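Our consortium's second objective concerns turning raw sequence data into structural hypotheses that experimental partners can test. To show how far this objective has progressed, the report includes one record in full. It was chosen at random from the queue rather than selected for favorable results. The single chain below, 250 residues long, was entered without modification.
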Amino acid sequence: MMDVERRAIELARPLAAVLADPKLTAAEAAGLETVTISTPSGRQVKGALAKPGRKAPAVLLIHEWWGLNDQIKAVAAELANQGYLALACDLYDGVVTTDAGKAGALMEAVDQAKARETLTAWVDWLRKTPDGNGKVATLGWCMGGGFSLVASTATPVDATVIYYGNVGATAEELAKLKGPVLGQFAEKDGWINHPMVDPFAANLKKLGKKHEIHWYDADHAFANPTGQHYDKADAALAWSRTLEFLKANL
């Protein structure tokens, strides 16, 4: 094993251990605070907040198609342990599932305009909250990876992290990006693949947008310990890169 991979596993082991154990995951998730805000249109939206105990840069986490489950909340708790104000938003209004068919239906039912408004409202709230220092990053997986990009093209953020999410944005949309982008993708992914990601990377380069694109010899959702495509080493390496990226840009 390469030294960088061994180091990555060591850095990410606490999070990996938590996510691999449902009891530990639930315990971490239970420690988060439920926060409710109003969007500009008057809708009430909720999120799960983890505080580091001091004024800090913020990270907006966006869940996979399963909904805002304990796994995503546990990642928020780990980010708070790393010194970030972490807010895991909810795009499903409290609905969570473990059934892929239901998850697909929930994802398809998301109102894109409302989701965009929700994400923008949370970024604005994180910028202004007394617990934050004004800096905000977005971070999402799968469906949430796509919405991480949606959020950062809808309103200025300081950094964007995308795990195997839809990056089929136009060059005009990408021109709105203000901060750097970290993309983590899987070579065996049949959906978020090179035909989608390569033009995205090319547009970022053409627009002069700072970015890092990493490919892993893995399949979609390789960072999810509860899924059949989980790859421990690649998940650890991707997480260590995420932490380094956030540290460098927030």
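The partners drew two points from this record. The radius of gyration is 17 Å. Residues 232-249 form the longest helix (18 residues). Both points have been shared with the crystallography group to help prioritize constructs.
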